[in-house]
């Protein structure tokens, strides 16, 4: 789980660039590899100089993303995440893809005696680039981080500005090219070879069925981020990946399960407020709203989606459906496919749409989902029973849960929270050390081992998560102490836990504390108030 969290935080900041690169490669596929003109003998690029120029120009961005951007972006992201100096991470990444080096894609076709090398008299080192390589970049960046930490402890502060960057970067670059790069390349190639053998071997249908079935659960755990590295390595080694098509199909399958719930709950306006946006986002490649907001709530749609994904994945691998790039999921993922496999991906999409939808409708009708009471009717009863004023409040205020600067999630600097994957919310850079309830509610979740987070449920069913620090789960509760128990009813301002900012910083983690809405329960709009200094229990930071 720790490895999954790290993978998520490394790749999350890179996703916008990867998606952009994937769309560009998909568009170039359409204009330079699809023979749609003159009786299927020519592409658009062959017919038009303008589109030939567009195709050539767009490769400038595609190359920047997938050849250069991946190693550089990974080095920057790892160093930033681990608390190192980001600019040194960028420079380290650039040394892995320098124009002075033999391009990684040219290595397999270059005779050994023609590979350039550095000659140090006593030994030589091949001058090989690491374009599109993932593991060498990760290993090099981690080395830089730990070298920085070592020299900061060793060198007096008065000369750290001179000594630490120089020694750390030079040694990290040496390690990257002399040792870590070749090792990372070999390990990455071995992993991609094993995966490729599984996808293309005698048992490829079994591999596809298993991967298609378990991918959605991997999303729940965060382990799915690890597939990004495998996908990129497959593209680097085999000029395409057969994993990404199955991932895109899993997105579609979970969305189709939601589509089944939309049909079953077509008269339930409250349910559709969640179903419709979850379905749309799923078909566009973002599954979290569907999985957490709909499918896991009822569970059987989740299983139906997994089953449909497995069926589609079997068809996918049996036909050799391959993607040129990653980043574009769901239905738009067809743009990432190699042109000759677009028809087979389209067929697999039909399976991913039909199977989960049919299964969800059948199981849902057996469970009576379509016959459950409509909220519209329930509202009439509620209006009659709550004439004394017990109806749900129209507006709630969230108070500051710590003293400190109130900031938006975008400023947190953590991929999972900053991208809103967990939910909407805000954060506070604390100057106090007692976390208090921002609103009245019931304590529904405590992390007994790490004691760094609290889950609450409000009277209207809205669920929130309070999370102290980034990656503080690693501290295993050191410096944290709960003041409440699961099931306790608390008021706004009630102390929930105490923590040590000093211990959090000593462990190398930011102490920024986050509040996110994990379940809106039908509430459409939350207003978050940031850019100010909050006072615990006094400053209004959010309302709905």
Secondary structure: elements and pairs:
Blueprint: H1 2-11, H2 15-32, H3 44-47, H4 49-81, H5 86-96, E1 117-119, E2 124-126, H6 135-154, H7 160-200, H8 204-221, H9 226-238, H10 243-264, H11 269-283, H12 288-298, H13 300-318, H14 342-366, H15 375-385, E3 397-399, E4 404-408, H16 415-418, E5 424-430, E6 434-436, E7 441-446, E8 453-457, E9 463-468, E10 480-482, E11 489-490, E12 495-499, H17 501-506, E13 513-519, E14 527-528, E15 532-534, E16 540-543
Antiparallel strand pairs: 1-2, 3-16, 4-5, 4-15, 5-13, 6-12, 7-8, 7-11, 8-9, 9-13, 10-12, 14-16
Helix pairs in contact: 2-4, 4-5, 4-6, 5-6, 5-7, 6-7, 7-8, 7-9, 8-10, 8-13, 10-11, 10-12, 10-13, 10-14, 11-12, 12-13, 13-14
Characterize the structure shown.
The protein is flat and about 75 Å long. It has helices at 2-11, 15-32, 44-47, 49-81, 86-96, 135-154, 160-200, 204-221, 226-238, 243-264, 269-283, 288-298, 300-318, 342-366, 375-385, 415-418, 501-506, and strands spanning 117-119, 124-126, 397-399, 404-408, 424-430, 434-436, 441-446, 453-457, 463-468, 480-482, 489-490, 495-499, 513-519, 527-528, 532-534, 540-543. It folds into 3 domains: 2-200, no CATH class; 242-379, no CATH class; 397-543, Glucose Permease (Domain IIA) (Distorted Sandwich), CATH 2.70.70.10. It starts with a helix and ends with a strand. The chain contains 17 helices and 16 strands. It is 52% helix and 12% strand. With 544 residues, it is α+β, with helices and mostly antiparallel strands. The strands form 4 sheets. The protein has an 8-stranded antiparallel beta sheet, with no helix packed on it.
């Amino acid at each position: 789980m720790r490895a999954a969290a790290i993978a998520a935080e490394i790749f999350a900041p890179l996703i916008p660039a990867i998606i952009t690169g994937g769309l560009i490669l998909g568009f170039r596929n359409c204009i330079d590899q699809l023979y749609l003109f003159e009786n299927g003998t020519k592409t658009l690029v062959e017919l038009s100089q303008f589109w030939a120029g567009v195709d050539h120009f767009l490769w400038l961005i595609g190359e920047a993303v997938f050849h250069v951007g991946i190693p550089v972006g990974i080095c920057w992201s790892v160093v930033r995440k681990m608390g190192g100096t980001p600019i040194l991470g960028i420079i380290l990444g650039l040394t892995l893809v320098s124009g002075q080096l033999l391009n990684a894609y040219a290595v397999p076709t270059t005779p050994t005696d023609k590979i350039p090398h550095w000659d140090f008299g006593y030994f030589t080192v091949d001058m090989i680039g690491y374009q599109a390589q993932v593991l060498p970049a990760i290993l090099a960046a981690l080395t830089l981080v730990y070298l920085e930490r070592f020299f900061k402890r060793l060198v007096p502060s008065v000369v750290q500005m001179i000594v630490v960057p120089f020694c750390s970067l030079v040694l990290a670059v040496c390690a990257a090219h002399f040792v870590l790069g070749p090792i990372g390349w070999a390990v990455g190639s071995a992993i991609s070879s094993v995966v490729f053998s599984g996808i293309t071997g005698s048992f490829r249908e079994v591999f596809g069925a298993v991967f298609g079935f378990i991918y959605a659960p991997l999303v729940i755990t965060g382990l799915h981020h690890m597939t990004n590295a495998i996908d990129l390595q497959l593209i680097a080694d085999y000029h395409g990946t057969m994993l990404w098509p199955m991932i895109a199909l899993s997105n579609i399958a979970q969305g189709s399960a939601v589509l089944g719930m939309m049909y079953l709950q077509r008269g339930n306006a409250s349910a559709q407020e969640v179903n419709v946006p979850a379905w749309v986002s799923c078909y566009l490649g973002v599954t979290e709203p569907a999985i957490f907001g709909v499918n896991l709530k009822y569970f059987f749609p989740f299983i139906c989606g997994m089953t449909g994904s497995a069926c589609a994945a079997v068809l996918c691998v049996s036909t050799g459906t391959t993607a040129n790039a990653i980043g574009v999921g769901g239905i738009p993922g067809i743009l990432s496919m190699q042109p000759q496999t677009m028809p087979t991906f389209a067929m697999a999409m039909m399976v991913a749409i039909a199977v989960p939808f049919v299964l969800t409708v059948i199981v849902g009708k057996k469970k009576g989902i379509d016959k459950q009471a409509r909220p519209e009717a329930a509202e009439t009863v509620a209006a009659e029973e709550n004439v004394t004023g017990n109806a749900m409040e129209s507006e709630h205020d969230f108070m500051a849960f710590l003293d400190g600067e109130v900031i938006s999630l975008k400023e947190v600097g953590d991929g999972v929270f900053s991208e809103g994957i967990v939910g909407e919310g805000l954060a506070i850079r604390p100057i106090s050390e007692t976390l208090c309830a921002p609103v009245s509610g019931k304590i529904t979740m405590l992390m007994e081992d790490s004691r760094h987070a609290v889950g609450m449920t409000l009277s209207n069913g809205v669920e929130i998560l309070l999370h102290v620090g980034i990656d503080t789960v690693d501290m295993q509760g050191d410096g944290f102490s709960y003041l409440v128990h699961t099931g306790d009813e608390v008021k706004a301002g009630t102390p929930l836990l105490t923590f040590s900012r000093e211990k959090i910083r000593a462990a190398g983690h930011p102490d920024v504390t986050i509040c996110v809405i994990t379940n809106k329960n039908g509430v459409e709009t939350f207003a978050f108030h940031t850019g100010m200094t909050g006072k615990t229990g006094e400053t209004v930071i959010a309302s709905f």
